[in-house]
Amino acid sequence: MSNVTVVYTKSELERAIERQDKTIAVKSASLADDVKTVKSASSGAFALAVGSAGVFATNFWNPLGWGSGIIGTLSTGSLITAIVTIGLSTTLLFAIYNDYSIKGRTSIRLAGGNSIDADLVMERD
Fold it and tell me: How far is CA 97 from the centre of its chain?
């Protein structure tokens, strides 16, 4: 398979998504777990988690903002944790959610005939 982008960090993943790379091989188990969590969420839970993470992050100093942040956190806790850990913009999170399909731990063939083991492979739909 040609044109495989191998990423190890969230900043590398961010650049690959921004470039709209067709195939991304994630070589970090924790980053792969966070991407799987984001990708496997229902659309309602995803929207609530993105909104709650934003409200909670921008209003952490304001007790009035805690209510909506806490409600969202209680209902979508692991998803919010994954979103905050990945630390990507809302646009890039939506790109993961809408534009890529994922495969779990797999081996992927590179252009030169070599293959690598990846914790997750993302393919642009």
Answer: 8
CB atoms within 10 A of CB 41: 20
DSSP characters over 17-60: HHTT-SEEEE--HHHHHHHHHHHHS-HHHHHHHHHHHHHHHHST
Average pLDDT over residues 104-113: 86
The answer, yes or no, to whether residue 86 has pLDDT greater than 60, is yes
pLDDT value for 75: 43
1 neighbors 92 (Cβ within 8 angstroms): no
End-to-end CA distance of the chain, in Å? 16
Q: Are 99 and 4 in contact (CB under 8 A)?
A: no
CA-CA distance, 77 to 58, in Å (whole number)? Answer: 17
Q: How far is it, in rounded angstroms, from Cα 25 to Cα 117?
A: 9
